[in-house]
């Protein structure tokens, strides 16, 4: 080897050793950073505990909020074609605009005729289905009652649009023929155990025998179509007398809200062109009534969040939960900044020494950011454990097992992106300012101990952070109080009739019993004072509406009537009040009508007595108006009072309402069940209470109220940690001042006043910001309710009172400790 080559080799060896030494130095430096960080945390354990506690709770809440939002915003996204799945809906243009997810049942035929390039299928959703398993002789051997949207009548094309994996059979072979049913795996196991269910027979509603022809996998948790039973749509055509949802197979004039039409749009389709085709279809098939209807097409994934179409999770609640999650994280980070800047004074000499021996600003900053990272990592680990352990219990606590995430999906890439982003954001937000302050200390001042509060941003910075925390706390308190009061108002306000002590039982076959005899036997039971056969209760989420004409007017009214089938005992059972006329006569068919005051108002008639004896034509039947009833709330307090007509139609009376006068409800209802089983031995008995059903209508509000309450308490707790840190810092800064005051004769009250005045000022400033902002936000929220509470001074006063009480409890101990400290020791410490 030449000398030249030896030189090159030597220089390369030196470079390699230099790089190795550089890497080793970095390793040693990082190792030292970790040691110093860990020792600082051990030395200042109270500071570490407070920071880790606040951050871990805030991060746990943020994770729970993330899983909630992720769960709700990915409903039905497991379908591979979710971006091309659309739903045809209905707009009613009568008196104003109404909306429904349902469509006329023959919509699917029209879609296939006019738009054959689309894959289109119908789905009629059924609730509270009664099912019985039959043996080979046709005898019932098992009976079940399925709650919720358990059953769906579907075309085979349904499975070309939505993904449900077939374990046995296929859509075309299993659902093309009438009287066939496909089960989910869970339902197959529930009904048939380990037996092969294929070819077995299930009796549906005790009227239809359906052969099991296929098995599909179970529905996932985050779906709005958790069906366990799929009945062939051809079953409805083959059994015209059997109606379970739908408004007539070929009827364009009626819409059932649970009759859905889905279509799979080809890739690249211009939806504007589809809307034009639907407008033409509407005009063609609705005939002269086409102006009263419209059929918008919407992306199916948006339906879940649509308030207009009664989506189960309106987008406003997603935004509210997102805001709460951000509030909690920001509050926890501000706590960190408060305490870290307070600790900066104690660490000033440490920073001065490091800088005097050659430490740079970047090294000091890196050291503090590493400490912040360690605290955040520990807090995130604890928060993750808390959230993981808590999540499975949330569904049970909220009484919504099917509508909330039950477990963490660790394979979800968004989860890890969120965790990484959250960790980075918290470290930067919480550590950057304190790190910059520490790195900026001048070594001379630091070593002389001349670094004061002014050099670390002063108390003004901490005041600003505490004010911001108090603003968030008071906002949450105001929101909690408004939501709580609105829900209480809705649950406690009278709906216009008696709701207590009203039980409701199902009548599976109203056309096969003597209702008069059944009612008399009910009345003979001790504790039963009245009973009425009907289809709908006075207040319900299920309603029928119909066109109608009044008196001699040649055309139908431009608005629709809410129709309720009921007998002549309906008014006495529910305590509905007649304001004019008399009750309808006893009859099995339509002989007359009762209407409410709203109908009189919308007809433009000034006096209720003037409509008595005039004719109404509903369902093609012309009959006189017998009486006018005082208005009552037919739905929730979100909507106005509906125009309502009540008339008798025996064959549709699938419900019996029972008015109870007994205090021994258990024994009374036990006797009712015994009588019911005598009439309907092949069915399962079911009873509900009217006041419970009304409460259920506000289920979402109650759930969100529970969550907001909990997050408000957590926010207050995190804010208390920050306030505690501020008071502790103030006490350390005012040690000499307090000592001098006490030597000069200051009382305990006046010393405590120093802290009280400071904190009170912060609370008042926060309230001045939070009160108008809270009023604006909650006023916008209340706009969704037709009947709502006012946001008065009582709510605002209570919000600031709660803040004062919490602040007094939090700051009291540290303030009292500082005020009671021996002035000799306080002055000697200087």
TrEMBL record:
Positions of the MacB-like periplasmic core domain: 49-280
First-listed, main subcellular location of the protein, grouped into a coarse class: membrane
Bilayer disposition of the protein: Multi-pass membrane protein
Domain ABC3 transporter permease C-terminal: 323-430, 710-809
InterPro entries: ABC3_permease_C, MacB_PCD, Macrolide_Exporter_MacB
GO MF assignments: transmembrane transporter activity
Regions crossing the membrane: 46-69, 317-337, 374-394, 414-433, 464-483, 707-727, 748-775, 795-816
CC terms in the record's Gene Ontology section: plasma membrane
Pfam families: FtsX, MacB_PCD
Keyword terms: Cell membrane, Membrane, Transmembrane, Transmembrane helix
Annotated localization: Cell membrane
Protein name stated in the entry: ABC transporter permease
Organism: Dyadobacter psychrotolerans
């Amino acid at each position: 080897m030449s000398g030249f080559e030896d030189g090159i080799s030597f220089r390369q060896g030196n470079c390699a050793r230099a790089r190795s030494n550089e890497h080793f130095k970095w390793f040693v430096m990082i190792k030292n950073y970790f040691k110093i960080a860990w020792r600082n945390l051990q030395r200042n354990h109270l500071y570490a505990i407070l920071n880790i506690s606040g951050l871990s709770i805030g991060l746990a809440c943020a994770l729970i909020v993330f899983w909630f939002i992720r769960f709700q915003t990915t409903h039905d996204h497991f379908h591979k074609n979710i971006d091309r799945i659309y739903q045809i809906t209905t707009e009613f243009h009568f008196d104003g605009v109404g909306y429904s997810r349902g469509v006329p049942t023959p919509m699917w035929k029209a879609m296939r005729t006019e738009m054959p390039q689309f894959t289109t299928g119908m789905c009629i959703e059924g609730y509270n289905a009664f099912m019985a398993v039959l043996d080979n002789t046709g005898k019932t051997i098992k009976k079940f009652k399925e709650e919720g949207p358990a059953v769906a009548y579907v075309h085979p094309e349904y499975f070309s649009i939505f993904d449900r994996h077939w374990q046995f059979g296929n859509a075309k072979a299993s659902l093309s023929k009438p009287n066939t049913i496909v089960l989910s795996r869970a339902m197959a196991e529930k009904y048939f155990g380990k037996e092969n269910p294929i070819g077995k027979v299930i009796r549906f509603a005790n009227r239809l025998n359906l052969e099991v022809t296929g098995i599909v996998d179970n529905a996932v948790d985050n779906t709005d179509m958790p069906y366990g039973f799929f009945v062939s749509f051809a079953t409805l055509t083959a059994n015209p007398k059997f109606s379970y949802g739908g408004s007539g197979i070929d009827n364009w004039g009626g819409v059932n809200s649970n009759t859905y039409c889905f279509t799979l749009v080809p890739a690249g389709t211009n939806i504007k062109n589809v809307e034009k085709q639907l407008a033409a279809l509407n005009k063609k098939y609705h005939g002269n009534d086409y102006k009263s209807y419209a059929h918008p097409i919407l992306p199916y994934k948006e339906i879940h969040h649509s308030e207009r179409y009664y989506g189960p999770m309106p987008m406003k609640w997603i935004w509210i939960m997102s805001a709460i999650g951000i509030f909690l994280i920001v509050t926890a980070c501000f706590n960190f900044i408060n305490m870290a800047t307070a600790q900066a004074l104690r660490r000033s000499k440490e920073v001065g020494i490091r800088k005097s021996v050659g430490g740079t600003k970047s090294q000091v900053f890196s050291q503090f950011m590493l400490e912040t990272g360690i605290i955040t990592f520990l807090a995130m680990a604890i928060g993750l454990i808390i959230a993981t352990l808590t999540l499975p219990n949330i569904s049970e606590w909220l009484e919504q097992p099917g509508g909330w995430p039950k477990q963490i999906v660790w394979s979800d890439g968004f989860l890890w992106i969120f965790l990484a982003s959250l960790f980075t954001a918290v470290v930067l937000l919480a550590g950057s300012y304190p790190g910059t302050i520490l790195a900026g200390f001048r070594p001379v001042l630091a070593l002389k101990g001349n670094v004061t509060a002014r050099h670390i941003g002063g108390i003004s910075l901490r005041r600003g952070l505490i004010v911001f925390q108090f603003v968030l706390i008071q906002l949450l308190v105001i929101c909690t109080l408004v939501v709580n009061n609105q829900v209480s108002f809705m649950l406690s306000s009278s709906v216009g009739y008696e709701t207590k002590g009203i039980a409701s039982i199902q009548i599976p076959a109203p056309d096969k019993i003597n209702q008069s005899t059944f009612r008399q036997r009910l009345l003979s039971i001790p504790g039963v004072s009245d009973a009425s056969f009907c289809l709908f209760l006075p207040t319900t989420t299920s309603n029928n509406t119909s066109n109608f004409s009044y008196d001699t007017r040649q055309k139908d009214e431009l608005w629709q009537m809410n129709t309720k089938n009921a007998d002549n005992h309906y008014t006495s059972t529910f305590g509905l009040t007649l304001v004019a006329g008399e009750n309808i006569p006893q009859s099995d068919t339509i002989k007359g009508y009762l209407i409410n005051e709203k109908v009189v108002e919308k007809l433009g008639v000034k006096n209720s007595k003037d409509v008595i004896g005039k004719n109404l034509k509903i369902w093609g039947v012309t009959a006189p108006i017998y009486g006018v009833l005082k208005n009552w709330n037919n739905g929730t307090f979100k909507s106005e009072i509906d125009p309502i007509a009540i008339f008798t139609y025996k064959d549709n009376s699938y419900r019996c309402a029972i008015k109870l006068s007994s205090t021994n409800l258990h024994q009374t209802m036990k006797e009712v069940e015994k009588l019911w089983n005598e009439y309907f031995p092949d069915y399962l008995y079911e009873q509900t209470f009217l006041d419970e059903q009304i409460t259920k209508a506000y289920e979402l509000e109650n759930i969100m109220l529970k969550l907001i309450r909990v997050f408000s308490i957590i926010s207050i707790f995190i804010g208390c940690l920050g306030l505690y840190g501020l008071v502790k810092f103030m006490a350390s800064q005012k040690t000499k001042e307090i000592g001098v005051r006490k030597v000069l004769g200051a009382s305990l009250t006046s010393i405590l006043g120093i802290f009280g005045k400071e904190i009170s000022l912060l609370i008042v400033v926060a309230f001045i910001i939070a009160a108008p902002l809270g009023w604006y936000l909650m006023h916008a929220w209340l706009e969704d309710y037709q009947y709502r509470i006012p946001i008065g001074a009582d709510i605002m006063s209570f919000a600031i009172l709660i803040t004062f009480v919490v602040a007094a409890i939090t700051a009291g101990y540290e303030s009292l400790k500082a005020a009671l400290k021996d002035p000799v020791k306080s002055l000697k410490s200087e």
